[in-house]
Amino acid sequence: MDKFFNDLKKFMIQESQEQKFNACEYFHTLHQHKDKLTELIHTYENHNCYFSYTVDNTDGYTDGVISIHFNNWQEGSYYYDIVLSSNQMWGGYCQCTPEDEGYNPIHDCCGLGCDYNAPSFNIKKISNVAGEDFTGHERDMWLLQEQWDKDMGIYKEDKNNAQIKEIEKQIASLQKRRVELQLFNS
Length: 186
Ligand SMILES: [Zn+2]
Prior knowledge:
186 residues; alpha+beta
């Protein structure tokens, strides 16, 4: 367990210098919940693994993802993603003043009982279920493509016909309504 956290700390310090995430907060959150990480830690410490970091791709919902991969892809058919994010803790709107006990001028808050964002994480184990290449020659794919395009044509035609039918139904219904109104007027 020590090796995992030592390596992770080094990695997070290094990454957070270039990327904008708070390595300290996330490191300690992970460490607090190390009991939930036993499988991941066991994998890391008994195999040749490495960390990588990916910046957020969810428009700001996360602080990025730390992944743990096997160096030898054959060895492991899975990898782990540690998604870094935060959860709003509702304490109350901050009304701290310098006179309050424990007031911290850097944060302009006592840091006790006020609203704040608690760092959190989600760990996903991603399995590689299958990875195969197309079996055959390139021209085999061309034939499949030809048939596919024909099928696409039929699909589009069916869709258009269904739409035409629906429009005809609407026309019939409107015509019926027109006749009813005309009868009423006469
Ligand atoms: Zn406060």
